[in-house]
Description:
Elements: H1 4-9, H2 41-49, H3 54-62, E1 66-67, H4 68-74, H5 80-92, E2 96-101, E3 107-112, H6 114-117, H7 120-140
Antiparallel strand pairs: 1-3, 2-3
Amino acid sequence: MRHTTSEQSGEIGHQTEIHGWDPELVPGSAGRTRRPEPGCPVEAALAAVAGRWTTLVLRELMGGPRGFTELRTRLPELSAKVLSERLRTLQESSLVTVERRRGFPVRTRYELTEAGRALRPLLVELYATGERLLRLREAELPARPARFT
């Protein structure tokens, strides 16, 4: 059996694929997938900001290098354990570098790498999109009748 549609289209993908990709949503072949793949640019971006508190830690580091205590002060409701976990994950993802300064106590500074700084437009757009979604959801809520007491 031949799959003439995919053979004639010249597009990269599985032979049985006959999907018309939206060029704005999928401008390159890496995103032409039927399931989440680590090599998909959208999945890579989402993985970089995944996890509760991650976007806030990134936001704080966008202002420049910060020490652990400074991050704790700027995010007082974030536990030291979770902050350590998020910073470790960001370091393992090559988004943050860590500098340990000698002395007592040892001082630790965290700084975004070039890849970490590249997340700034994504965070800005996520904020703007979130604001829009909240407004739209609010506008679509049915009017609630007044309660009489």
